[in-house]
Each structure stands twice: as C-alpha cells, then as structure tokens.
Design a protein that fits this description.
single chain, 311 residues, alpha/beta, Rossmann fold, 2 domains, 9-stranded mixed beta sheet, 5-stranded parallel beta sheet, 7 helices, elongated, binds flavin-adenine dinucleotide
Amino acid sequence: MVLVLVEHADGKAIDPSLQALTAARTFGEAVHALLIGSSVDLSAHGVAVAHLAQHASLDSFAPDAWAAILGQLADRLNARAIFAAGTDRGNEVMARVAARTQLPLATNCIAVATGSPVTLTRQRWGGSLLEEAALHSPRPLITVAPHTVAIAGYPADTTVEEFTPQLNEEELVVKVAERVSNKGGGVSLAEAKVVVSGGRGVGSKEGFAIIEELASLLRGAVGCSRVVTSAGWRPHSDQVGQTGTKIAPELYIACGISGATQHMAGCKGAKRILAINSDAEAPIMQNADYAVVGDLKEIVPAISAELRKQR
Ligand SMILES: Cc1cc2nc3c(=O)[nH]c(=O)nc-3n(C[C@H](O)[C@H](O)[C@H](O)COP(=O)(O)OP(=O)(O)OC[C@H]3O[C@@H](n4cnc5c(N)ncnc54)[C@H](O)[C@@H]3O)c2cc1C
C-alpha cells in the first residue's frame, strides 16, 4: 500500500492533496490516507483507509509532529511509498520525514511510475526545467507539484480508523501560534477562480486601488509580483510565484508584470492569462492568451467601468 498525507481546510481536502492521491494511484496499490485533526470524506478519491490522527496537543499545524505521525504510520503499515502535496506544508513535513528516516525525497513531481527504481519527472528551477529521475529507495518519499496532475475521481469504500500518535515535547516546539485572516476575509489567493495581479507597473501602494476594485467586481483575489512585496506595497501573502503562492485560477489578469520565470512558476497553472502591459515585447506576452498593450492606469479602470455597466 501507499500512504498519502492529505491536507484539509473547511471540511474538505485541498485540491493539491487530491492531485497527490491521483498520482499515488499510479502505483497500482491500495491507497491509504493520513488525516490530522479531523476527518474529511475521501471516498470519491480511491482511498481504502483514512487514518485519522488525533492528539490533545495537535490543535494547529506542527511540522515535526506531523512528520513523526507520518513516519510512525508508514512504519506500522509498512508503506511502500509516501506521497504528499508539494505545498509549503507538504514539502516541509516530507523534508522532515526524510531527515528523520535518512530516505531520499523527490519534491515537486509531475509524473511518477512504479518500479525498482521508481522513475519520475520533477520540476526544477521553478518549473523552467523538467528533470527525469530514478529514485532508488526502499520507501520513496514523493511530493506532487500543485496543479500539474488533474484530479481523477475513483469511488471507494473508505473506512476511517482513528489513532492517537505518540508525540514528545520537542516535536511540538514548532507550531502555528497565530492565524491572521485575509484583509476583508475575501476569497483566498490559492483558491480564487479569478486573480487580478499587479506588478512594478502599478507604481505604488495606492496604485493598487484599481487592482482591488477590478478583483472585487470579478469576485476574485488580488495578487502581485515580488517587486511589489519587496517594496512593501502588498503583504507577502499576496505574492504569486516561485517564492510565493502557486495558483491555478480560471483567469489570471497580470497588470504591469513583466513575466519573469520566477513569477510564471506561480501562475502557469492558470487556464487563461490576460496580460495588460505597456510593452508589447514583455516576456509575459509569450504566455498570455489575451493581451492589451497600453497603460494599466487607463485600461484597468476602463474594464471596471464596463463591468459596472453590465450589472
Ligand atoms: C530566487 C528568486 C525567486 C523569485 N521569486 C519570485 C516570485 O515568487 N514572484 C515574483 O513575482 N517574482 C519573483 N522573483 C523576482 C523576479 O525575477 C522578477 O524580478 C519579478 O517578478 C519582476 O516583477 P515585475 O514583473 O512586477 O517587475 P518588472 O520586471 O520590472 O516589470 C514591470 C512591468 O510593468 C510594465 N509596466 C510599467 N508601467 C506600466 C504601465 N503604466 N502600464 C502597463 N504596464 C506597465 C513594464 O513594461 C514591465 O513589463 C524571484 C527572483 C529570484 C531571483
């Protein structure tokens, strides 16, 4: 059997974890899931057994504790491989599992084939290079790059088995101390169907008023480039890219963003990209489905005005 760490929020497994479940099924073995804290329904995703870990001290994310639980469960089940989503949390927990067990970890895989060794394709350099690799390991540790594998449903009679993991104090030293919700409590960047992003071309913190307005009219989220977070115009939680959030909206509107590879690493999962840029030669034009060449300070308010007229 193969074991998959499934992250969840608001009573649902997150999409990158469902993508990891789909990838894990390519091993052709029974798929077991580890859920921490509370249960979610995984019966549409081919999970034979969902193992629910509950512990009085596990009220928030604690990476070393999660790694300890994953390792203990994998040993008990004699798991052939361990999968997780290539999210910040998934990669961190799996790195800790690798350090604890001295087993190799392959992060951000987009395709995996069972065998000895396991062969896989993984994203390197923010997705600008694909590496074909052979993973020699008695128990491959694999994270799946978010939004690179399509979720394929697979009905199963999932049973849920509760257990209490053994944790020590050191494993609970690093944990989430506080949660700060999005300003305005709107749709989150990672889950938004529409993301309107601004880059250096927006010009200032105040300049984001027109980006916020368009995002709000489209019921979307605001994103930005790293230049913007470095300048302090927006918080890091808004940053899209290799060192920011990786997103896969239906529509990504990039305003005044050049399209550096590190930025595109975060938004290449978008179904459609609309670039608004004064430079017709900007690299983002190569990746855009639609482009408007001109000053975003005129174009963005014009789109908002048109949307208002339609209402
Ligand atoms: C290790 C590493 C990690 C990185 N991680 C990230 C990351 O996660 N996310 C990220 O975004 N970047 C990341 N970067 C930075 C990245 O390389 C670029 O520097 C950055 O994305 C550029 O931001 P930008 O497009 O806003 O700015 P610029 O590259 O300066 O582009 C600004 C664009 O705005 C256009 N423009 C200017 N004025 C207007 C106007 N009035 N109307 C319309 N268009 C206008 C210009 O034509 C230009 O195309 C990383 C870099 C490194 C080295």
